[in-house]
Amino acid sequence: MARLADYFVLVAFGPHPRGSGEGQGQILQRFPEKDWEDNPFPQGIELFCQPSGWQLCPERNPPTFFVAVLTDINSERHYCACLTFWEPAEPTQEAVCSEDAAGREEEAAEGGSGRLSPGTSGPPGQLFAPKTLVLVSRLDHVEVFRNSLGLIYTIHVEGLNVGLETVVGNLLTCTIPLAGGSQLDSVEDGVRTISLGAGDRQVIQTPLTDSLPISRCSVALLFRQLGITNVLSLFCAALTEHKVLFLSRSYQRLSDACRGLLALLFPLRYSFTYVPILPAQLLEVLSTPTPFIIGVNAAFQAETQELLDVIVADLDGGTVTVPECVHIPPLPEPLQSQTHSVLSMVLDPELELADLAFPPPTISSSSLKMQDKELRAVFLRLFAQLLQGYRWCLHMVRIHPEPVIRFHKAAFLGQRGLVEDDFLMKVLEGMAFAGFVSERGVPYRPTDLFDELVAHEVARMRADESHPQRVLRHVKELAEQLYKNENPYPAVAMHKVQRPGEASHLRRAPRPFPRLDEGMVQWIVDQATAKMQGAPPAVKAERRTTVPSGPPMTAILERSSGLHGNSARRLEVVRNCISYVFEGKMLEAKKLLPAVLRALKGRAARRCLAQELHLHVQQNRAVLDHQQFDFVVRMMNCCLQDCTSLDEHGIAAALLPLVTAFCRKLSPGVTQFAYSCVQEHVVWSTPQFWEAMFYGDVQTHIRALYLEPAEDRDPSQGWEEPAEEERSALDVASEQRRLWPMLSREKQQELVQKEESTVFSQAIHYANRMSYLLLPLDSSKSRLLRERAGLGDLESASNSLVTSSMAGSVAESYDTESGFEDAETCDVAGAVVRFINRFVDKVCTESGVTSDHLKGLHVMVPDIVQMHIETLEAVHRESKRLPPIQKPKLLRPHLLPGEECVLDGLRVYLLPDGREEGSGGSGGGPAVLPAEGAVFLTTYRVIFTGMPTDPLVGEQVVVRSFPVAALTKEKRITVSTPVEQIPQDGLHLRSCTFQLLKMAFDEEVGSENAELFRKQLHKLRYPLDVRTTFAFTQGAAHTPGRPPRATKDKGPSLRTLSRNLVKNAKRTMGRPHVTRKKYSPPGYEHRGQAPEDQEDEISVSEELEPGTLTPASALKPSDRMTMSSLVERACCRDYQRLGLGTLSSSLSRAKSEPFRISPVNRMYAICRSYPGLLIVPQSVQDNALQRVSRCYRQNRFPVVCWRSGRSKAVLLRSGGLHGKGVVGLFKAQNTPSPGQSQADSSSLEQEKYLQAVVSSMPRYADTSGRNTLSGFSSAHMGGHVPSPRARVTTLSNPMAASASRRTAPRGKWGSVRASGRSGGLGGDVGSRLAGRDMRGPPQANGAPPDSGFPRPQRAALYIIGDKAQFKGVRPDPLQQWALVPIEMFEARQVKASFKKLLKACVPGCQDFESGPTFLRSLEDSEWLTQIHKLLHVSVMVVELLDSGSSVLVSLEDGWDITTQVVSLVQLLSDPFYRTLEGFRLLVEKEWLSFGHRFSHRGAHTLAGQSSGFTPVFLQFLDCVHQVHLQFPMEFEFSPFYLKFLGYHHVSRRFRTFLLDSDYERIELGLLYEEKGERKGPQTCRSVWEYVDRLSKRTPVFYNYMYAPEDTEVLRPYSNVSNLKVWDFYTEETLAQGPPYDWELAQVSPEPPEEERPDGGAPQSRRRVVWPCYDSRPRAQPDAISRLLEELQRLETELGRPPERWKDNWDRVKAAQRLEGRPDGRGTPSSLLVSSVPHHRRSLGVYLQEGPVGSTLSLSLDSDQSSGSTTSGSRQAARRSTSTLYSQFQTAESENRSYEGTLYKKGAFMKPWKARWFVLDKTKHQLRYYDHRVDTEIKGVIDLAEVEAVVSGTPTMGAPKTVDEKAFFDVKTTRRVYNFCAQDVPSAQQWVDQIQSCLSDA
């Protein structure tokens, strides 16, 4: 029996001690006054009676009731039922509020209390004070408390004639039965009827099982208030130990919500802070760091806003707010969705019927109390499913004197298949589950509903999963049981309790609540106590039984194990391999081993391996020979490799006994056990693993302890033994607990001692085992081991130890190692001793080992460790003497001439990286990687050569190499070797040629060698001086770090000249450079300039007449040589080709030319990074250039680099503008200070310079009168009138743009936004250059709109620059140049983008699932976006140039993006640059001469190491590759040529791409050495020379589809969707390594298609080509290469010297051109190409040449011409395919020797018209057609009648925009024909062709 109430307390309002406005509670009386011995009086009751604080009230409120819960220090809960009513305040109480009242009087006019309302009872100003009756109990009978306190209040209010003392006394002495009515004998024992002596009667029902919580309706109410999802969130939050806060205005609601949440958590008990109603004074409790469930009045919601980690549930609003920083893990699927659907069926039964056509008339919905139990039943089922089989993971560590039980968490998670589940992991680690294990793990105890459910109903629940109605039925059955537990006897529930009358609280009470007579109450209590003492003590009757374990656990969700689904076949392979090993069939075992290692990725195969190995262990020992031992160890390592630190599948646990069993004899008395070879796994250093193993073994031995007697029985009873054996440890423990009370004290002591000794002996055993697996065989590895997880941080035993794997452990420098081996050994021994001691402390304390034994263990552990170290020393010594395992022979790599080995082969394993093809990935093919071989370091490359480790692949040689100079990342790693699965030191090398070497060093490679390799690699990658690179040292003896000594030159060679030149340059450039003795690449920040008043001693031309060139006589002899050398440079040759002037021109000719070649920079005095000869306007004098250059970054002033042959527009390039440049001039509004004069003069010079550029263009020269600068200078100097001088094509302000459009003169192109035309530039240049939307309709795929003919309204010159430098510039309609601000990326963005591209194309790890996909990584790199921008800008510049406007590209410093843009523009505009020779010229001119910083961007030397690799040139090549893809017939060179340059511009094999400018190359004597210094054949130093040599031998750089059109301007599509990833980034040939060093290819260096020399001609013509291994183009060359090769072979057979391939090819093409084939078969490709419509070709015509004939496939994308400038092509309508084919057939019968568009003057009074002319040498006639696709001849000029071809003059109506020299006349005997070509060169070509035709005749 138990007391119903422990204390009755009367609490009233009292003044606050500190005199504040609020009052405080005062306990007026408490009964009994003395504390009960078993239950002291709880402190702080007065706070909880009025949680919102004690305050007086202006009106009499109705009485309130709620139950607060207090928890004492022993975690006992005390239920405080509080009934509060209000009485008129006494004067002393009112005085408390006087301060408040005074304040209110000032505010309120009536002078009374502001809170008094007119309707209240009592006089005005009357205040009411709260008074609370409190009942304190340890029992939870809310209704009984409500009735009892209500009765006391009723007696007081109604004035009943009953003594309050009697009622209170009876209440305190009332006793009720303990929980567990079902165990009592009769209904009377389970039900107690009480009366308090006031004519009342109450029935108290005791729950049947006290372990089941009582919820009444609280759970149902909680779901009604918050909904299913919110309650599930709160449920998960409470289980995973988050803070939960309830808010409501009702205290009773708060109590119910907290009660409901706790009821849902059953069978787990909430063990943290639980305060359903928190008083206002204790709100700071909410900031406690521990989890809690707390309720707070909604009035204090504002105070809870700042809590960042509290989940707030607002019961009144129905919301749950989860802060951002809190993650509530959801229930594992499918439990989450199943629970959700069952809850909705319970809460909303109509949901299932809502869609029925004929719903049933009525649905019987459960009562609220019943629904409450149904909801709880759902959660009870959930826990049964979640914890199913938990008893199988309990470890019985001790049975007597008290059970000690541990839970094997890892095994439970592993077997349930929930290792990754966040929710269950957190629940199992939580306090609630620890309490669950200690409470419910006990094997012999009373059972309840949950035990039955988890043991017997699991199968039913699994079967019901897919049947909702059956689930609902089960839920209702469970709900019935829960309801019966709370209401065992519903029939007798009758109450009779008086209540006060209606509105009794408003009636004036006769008197305050009286003071009770303490003596009388105490007397009643004493009477009852005396009576109780006579009665026998109340003992809780318990029916204890053995708790059923239930069925073994299964996975919660049967997941397929993916790729490694373990079929029976795989397990069979494992078994066979092990049996072969133990039968000694080593060859067979070796064949199976790779398959076994693959199979061991699966769990079942690993279990199978452990079981099979157990079968071969006799008496705990199995001695193997060396080979067997190696095999077994390798398989064990493979098993353990994938074990996590928790070992959830028990693999490490199964192997632990085996590693101490398998051994081999090294020598007499020295045995090596397997544990010394499997130590390197994280599981061995995880304390949790050892604890679980220890407890498991202890359980086995304890169980055996109590099963022993069974073995001594008579053999005749042996049949019972199996049954005895099957009993689990829990069953044995249950039986022992049942017998325990019956045993004698001595017997009990004996059993306790036996168990304690068992635990102690196991602790010693485990100390040994741990020392075996933690002490390394070799003390030199102690560093690695010491840093292993668990041993490093000896203070912490948390799971965080486990997460740090071994990957980072090797990342330290070798210098940190101590030189003293003994110190190392002691250190590792100490670490192991501490680790074992910590383990021993924990397990022995938990298992109840005596302190004496524990001390003994601490003494023993160091001795155990020391003994083991001594044993290991002998083992280590002997193991070193073993004969080494036969490893494959190292394959020597092929080296280039002059390439030498720096470090000989270090044995390594090449591991697979993220490119799965090499490891036999999705593309099929063999697993070429991992491969075993060696890494070589040469002066030029890092090379790996080896063989695949998988013997099934065969003996394929694997080669992977890259130039040392291309190394971008080197990282030390620790990786497992593919064979032994032992972690080894490794290196991760990534190169910018898209190669990756991920290597693990073999054991035999010492750490010193590995470190030496790294240091040498670093030294070669970043030499101190560029002269020590391979390009300079090849062929010389290699001495790293020392530059080769210069040989003394004989005679004044060019090298001497170079030195003189540099000396002169230094002298000229001023003082800063005079003192420099040693060469170092010049810094661009030192730009020493000659002062203004000193004339440059070499710039003689300044004194001469402007525009004349320096005559040779004016130069010194050395300068004369310089000039001649400069003239021979690429730039000069190109300038002459473009007609931009020559040095040898006569003076008169020079004056008429608009531009001239200026030698002003021949000594590199003005700009070091520019070439010596520059093209400048004729009218600008050399001395002005010095001043102009100051306005530009790095002094890179605008110079002409290309001129359009047709429109005569020029392309200029320069660095970005300084602030004091033109832009600064436009911005300058204030009066300049005197110090500014120099800057102003520079700016004026610059203005003149730009004007000169504009004037030198033929179309604009005549209108230049209006561009005078007279008014401009004075206005600027005055500074009053703002006078900006250039239009700016800005995009920031559309309104301003439109305004400028209105004010601009008619006919001018006023603003970039002004033009809305779809023709011309279609929209605006600036907006498209800046990447904005076009006004005009864009073409598909990002092609620019149709350009048409140039319109004269445009600006003469567009200056394209960075947006930042044009800020604040206003447009001026008077000037003829316009600024176009664009946003381009910077070099650092290129670098970052390339890094990401490299990682995407060559990922370092094989983790396909977790990492992003290739395409996502590619997108993130933004590489293609940058390519798009470059192409986009280039195409726009091409359009501008084509339309006749000149363009100045002035971006960044002028050597990166500027170079990319101007090079692309020239490539797109000029067909010459698309030839092999032209492309070379373009690169030499724009990239080498104009100073792209190859050494700086490629980080060639130590000085550039910090800047990193920035592939600006590679990006340009990628752009060219994109254009090549779209126009494959326009390029003479093949895509391989681009890859070749991409590879060798970083390889440092050639000197071409070294250093940053011509100046530096001269200083080093590189620039002119190529002429006159050769003595006999030697290695190529220039990449161009190498290309020339190779091109003579093989057509590898030649594009057979080359069929150009001379006038073709390419306009490629630039949208990202049109761009392709360059296969240079992704392709790989492991058979030979990169194919760009041609001599190294294993094929003969003749044509690349020869058979490999490994066995002569193959027997079969078929061969397998593997992805990632073979090169497909080499294995299967194209038809033309095959035919050329065949031709060479036949010539050789005939004994004739083979002709060059190019001669053969040219001859074939010529023959094709000449021969007509009337039968229509096999059209010559050249004829086909020429007859394709011009505009269609520019959109991409792909011609694929086959072995027989040719195939032509057209991609017809657009009707409009995108590239043609002739009217004929514009008029060409789209033809049907049939027309095209018929047209080709008619074309076949024709011979077209030469063709193109010419303007022809009609007969008298007829206009000029563009016609398509065909020169036919065979028929000796000149035909013409209306347009190119026309088949009908319009006219014929017979060449026999032609008398002369002479230059002509323009006549009336001739095309305006064409040069005069483009006109020519053909005189025949009949008449004179007037012709006009598009430009001068094409006119000349026509004249030449006609003349040659005439001469042939």
Keywords:
1897 residues; alpha+beta; 62 helices
- By DSSP, the count of extended strands is 45
Residue-averaged pLDDT: 76
The radius of gyration over CA amounts to 48 Å
Cross-sheet strand order for the largest sheet: 25-24-23-22-28-27-26
Count of helical regions: 62
Span from first to last CA? 137 Å
Helix content: 25-40%
* Helical/strand content category: alpha+beta
Percentage beta strand: 5-15%
Major β-sheet annotation: 7 strands, antiparallel
Low-confidence stretches: 98-121, 181-186, 558-566, 710-725, 782-790, 792-825, 1037-1057, 1065-1118, 1144-1149, 1224-1237, 1261-1341, 1343-1352, ...
Described by the principal axes of the CA atoms, the overall outline is elongated
Please describe what this structure looks like.
This protein is α+β, with helices and mostly antiparallel strands and 1897 residues long. The strands form twelve sheets. It has a seven-stranded antiparallel sheet with strand order 25-24-23-22-28-27-26. The protein has a seven-stranded antiparallel sheet with strand order 42-41-40-39-45-44-43, with helices on one face. The N and C termini lie far apart (137 Å).
List the helices and strands and how they pair.
Blueprint: E1 2-3, E2 7-15, E3 23-31, H1 45-49, E4 64-71, E5 77-88, H2 91-96, H3 98-107, E6 128-137, H4 142-158, H5 164-173, E7 175-176, H6 187-190, E8 191-194, E9 202-205, H7 218-226, H8 228-239, E10 243-248, H9 251-264, E11 273-275, E12 292-297, E13 310-314, E14 319-321, H10 335-347, H11 368-386, E15 394-398, E16 404-407, H12 409-416, H13 422-429, H14 431-440, E17 444-445, H15 449-456, H16 458-464, H17 468-486, H18 518-534, E18 545-546, H19 568-583, H20 586-599, H21 603-615, E19 622-623, H22 626-641, H23 651-659, E20 662-667, E21 670-673, H24 687-711, H25 721-726, H26 729-739, H27 745-774, H28 782-786, H29 800-803, H30 821-846, H31 851-880, E22 901-910, E23 931-938, E24 941-948, E25 958-963, E26 967-976, E27 983-991, E28 996-1001, H32 1007-1021, H33 1030-1033, H34 1054-1068, H35 1117-1127, H36 1130-1138, H37 1147-1152, E29 1155-1158, E30 1174-1177, H38 1182-1189, E31 1199-1203, E32 1210-1214, H39 1222-1227, H40 1237-1255, H41 1258-1261, H42 1270-1278, E33 1287-1288, H43 1294-1303, H44 1325-1329, E34 1357-1362, E35 1377-1382, H45 1387-1401, ...
Parallel strand pairs: 10-12, 10-13, 11-12, 19-20, 32-36, 33-35, 34-35, 34-36
Antiparallel strand pairs: 1-7, 2-3, 2-6, 4-5, 5-6, 8-9, 13-14, 15-16, 17-18, 20-21, 22-23, 22-28, 23-24, 24-25, 26-27, 27-28, 29-30, 31-32, 37-38, 39-40, 39-45, 40-41, 41-42, 43-44, 44-45
